[in-house]
Amino acid sequence: MDDVVSIDTLAAVAAVALLAALLVGLLPRLPVPQVVLLLVGGVVIGPHVLGIGSPAGVQVLADVGLGFVFLLAGYELDLRLFRQDAGRRALLSWAVSFGLAAVVVGLLTAAGLVEAFLPVALGLTTTALGTLLPVLREEGLLHGRLGRYLLAAGGVGELLPVLVIAVFLGSQGRVTALVSLGGVAALAVLLGLLRHGVRDGSRLADVVRAGQHETAQITLRGTILLLLTLVALTDRFHLDAVLGAFLAGIVLRRWVGEAAPELESKLDAVGYGFFVPLFFVYSGMNLDLPAIAAAPLLLVLFLVLMLAVRGGPVLLVYRRVLDRRERCQTALVSATALPVLVALTEIAVRSGTMTSDDAAALVGAGMVTVLVFPAVVVALGRGPARPAASPSPADPVGPAR
C-alpha cells in the first residue's frame, strides 16, 4: 500500500538530510543551497540511480512536509508589506509576469512543446523566498528600502501561485475550490475573533502560556494538529489543503507571533529538522531523469523563460524606486524558483494536470536558478556603491518588521 511507511527508505532519507546539512556547515563557501543537495541526494538514492528507497515508502510523511513548506512560508510573510508601495509594485510585476507567461506558454502549447498550459505558466512565476532568505539575511540585503521590495516580491511569488493552483488546478473542481477558499477565509476570521476572546489573565490563556514549554508544548501540538487536520481532509493531498496550510501560517503569525515568539523556533525545528527536508528528498526520488535526458532543451527553455517572464517586468515596474543594480537584484530574486516550484509540480502531477516530463524540466530549471541567480545577487550587492533612487512617498522609510 502507498500509505505504508518503509523504515528502510525513511532511514536513507534521514541520512541524506543529515549529510546535506553537514556539507553546508563544513563547506560554508559551497555555492549550492541545501535544498539542491536534498534534491540531488533524493535522485541518488531513488529508483533511477542506486534504488535504495522507493518514494511510495515515505509519501505520507512527505505530504506533511509539503504542508510544512507552505505553513512556514505563510508564517514568515508579513502582510503589512502589502499596504506599502513595495507590496503594490510586487503585485503589479507578478500580474504582468503571469500575463506574459500565459501568452508564451500558450504559444508553446499550440506548437506541441508543452502539454500542461496552466501549471507551466504558473511555474514560471514562482519565487523561492524561503530558500533565499538565509542568503539575503547573511548579506544584509533585507534591511531598508531594498529589503522591503525583495521581501514583497518574494512573498507575492509564493502566495499568488498557491491561490491560483487552489482555484484552477484542484481535482475537486473550481466551485468546490472556491467554496473551500471561502471556508478557509472564514476560519481565519473565526480564529482571529477567538484570539481576542482569549484575554490575558483568563484561565485558558494561563493554561496555554504555562503549557508552552517542557512536556506539554500546547502551542506546538495545536499547530501540528491544525496542519495534520488540513492534510487529512482528503484521501490524497489536494490543493485546498495546501492553501489552508499557507493561510494557517499567516493566521498563526497573528495569533502567537508576538505573544509566543518561541513557537517560530519550534516550528523551524520540527519542520526544517525533519518534515521539510524529507519532502525535498522525496521530490528528488520522484524526479524523472530519463525525461530530462530525453529533452534537455526543454529545461534550457524553461530557464530562459523564468528569467525573462518573471524577472523582466521587475526591471520596468521598479524603475522609479530602485537603481539599476537594485532592479537587477530584485529581478534575479524574483526569478529564483525551487521549493514552491517543486511543490507545485508535485501537486499538478498528482492531480493529473501536468505530465512528468514537463515537471522534471521545470524542477531542473529551478535547480539551475537556485545555483546561479543568488550568487549573482550577492556579487551585485558587493559591487561599488551607487546613489540610491528616491523612495516613493507612499513607502515609509525603515524596516517593515
Question: What's the structural blueprint in terms of helices and strands?
Answer:
Layout: H1 7-26, H2 34-45, H3 59-76, H4 85-110, H5 117-123, H6 129-138, H7 144-168, H8 174-197, H9 203-210, H10 218-231, H11 239-256, H12 262-286, H13 289-294, H14 296-317, H15 324-335, H16 339-350, H17 356-381
Task: Walk me through this protein's architecture.
The chain has 401 residues and is an all-alpha fold. The protein has one domain: Na+/H+ antiporter like fold. The protein has 17 helices and no strands. The chain is globular, with a radius of gyration of 21 Å. The protein starts with 6 loop residues before the first helix and ends in a 20-residue tail after the last helix. The model is unreliable at 234-239 and 386-401 (pLDDT under 50).
The radius of gyration over CA amounts to 21 Å
Count of all domains = 1
Going by CATH, the architecture would be Up-down Bundle
By CATH reckoning, the class would read Mainly Alpha
Find the CATH topology. Na+/H+ antiporter like fold
Transmembrane segments: 6-28, 35-54, 60-79, 91-110, 116-136, 148-169, 175-194, 215-233, 291-318, 330-349, 361-380
Domain Cation/H+ exchanger transmembrane: 19-378
GO molecular function: antiporter activity
Subcellular location: Membrane
Summarize the structure in short:
The protein is an all-alpha fold and 401 residues long. The radius of gyration is 21 Å and the shape is globular. The termini are far apart.
Features:
71% helix, mainly alpha, Na+/H+ antiporter like fold, globular, single chain, 17 helices, transmembrane, 401 residues, antiport
